[in-house]
Amino acid sequence: MVGDKMSIAVMRIIKSAKVLDNQICYAIKDANLIFEICATRFKLHKMVYTHKAATAVEYMIVDGLLAAEPHLQIAKQVYDPNKFLYLTDDIMARIESSSDPNLATSRAIFDRIRVRDLYKMVDWKVVDWPWAEIFEKNVTPTKIVEAASKLAKENEKMVELVRGLTEEDVICDFSLMHYGMKEKNPLDFVRFYSKHHPNRPAPAERGDYSNLRPAFFAELLVRVYTRNVDYYYVIQAGYR
Fold first, then answer.
1. Which residues does 96 contact at the CB level (< 8 Å), separation at least 6?
2. Whole-model pTM?
3. Is the dihedral of CA 96, 101, 104, 106 positive or negative?
4. CA–CA separation, 147 vs 158, rounded Å?
5. Torsion of CA 37, 211, 128, 186, to 10 degrees
6. In 3D, which of 220, 218, 222 has the Cα closest to residue 41?
7. What is the DSSP string of 30-42?
């Protein structure tokens, strides 16, 4: 799907595993393989699970369901086993095939997905772990709209572009990606045995596996989307 094959020597890792002191340990020669599992996890989240198009579709599906909620009462169905039994992924198809005028907004959103008229990613930034919380608190639709409106007051050419812009036109998405234990190195919590000490679990030391490691084992991907492409550049300016 992303044009990049990812593989792990699973059988080698399984054969390497054994229990020592009530914990699963691995041969120290396989430390690089264990580290590669963690790196691959991060890579999959970065390249596949949080792909910009996939994220845009997720927001559109949520918006479509929220628009249908007042009429279909979807949320209440989880409390009724008989209704919940039939609450499956086909709810999207049921909405699309409906001619009920109350579901027109939902159908319009789902139709945009079918024709690839997705919410547009306006801007993005990869944030180092120590700054993640600051970005999450300060990058908000409200502040972006306020910044865009302020710019419009300083630049007459932006007045018409900003007219009608609301917080509903802006989506701030935060994707925390890491090696499995947020900012910590997962291998610090794995124990290994060696050829000379096959029954003694010990942590991997520097030099036991690659010294090429990230400065932080976690990062925050900040992305700003717009539901209305007409405000693309205005929202971008407000964010920046």
1. 107, 110, 111
2. 0.85
3. negative
4. 12
5. 40
6. 218
7. GHHHHHHHHHHHH
**Token pair for residue 167?**
């917080």
Report angle CA 28, 29, 33 to the nearest 5 degrees. Answer: 100
Please tell me the distance from the alpha carbon of residue 167 to that of residue 139, in angstroms, as a whole number.
Answer: 12
Reference 183, options 137, 133, 130; nearest CA is: 130
pLDDT in tens, the chain (240 residues): 566 677 788 899 999 999 999 999 999 999 999 999 999 999 999 999 999 999 999 999 999 999 999 999 999 999 999 989 988 989 999 999 999 999 999 999 999 999 999 999 999 999 999 999 999 999 999 999 999 888 888 777 677 778 889 999 999 999 999 999 999 999 999 999 999 999 999 999 988 898 888 989 999 999 999 999 998 999 998 998
Could you give phi then psi for residue 207, rounded to 5 degrees? 105, -15
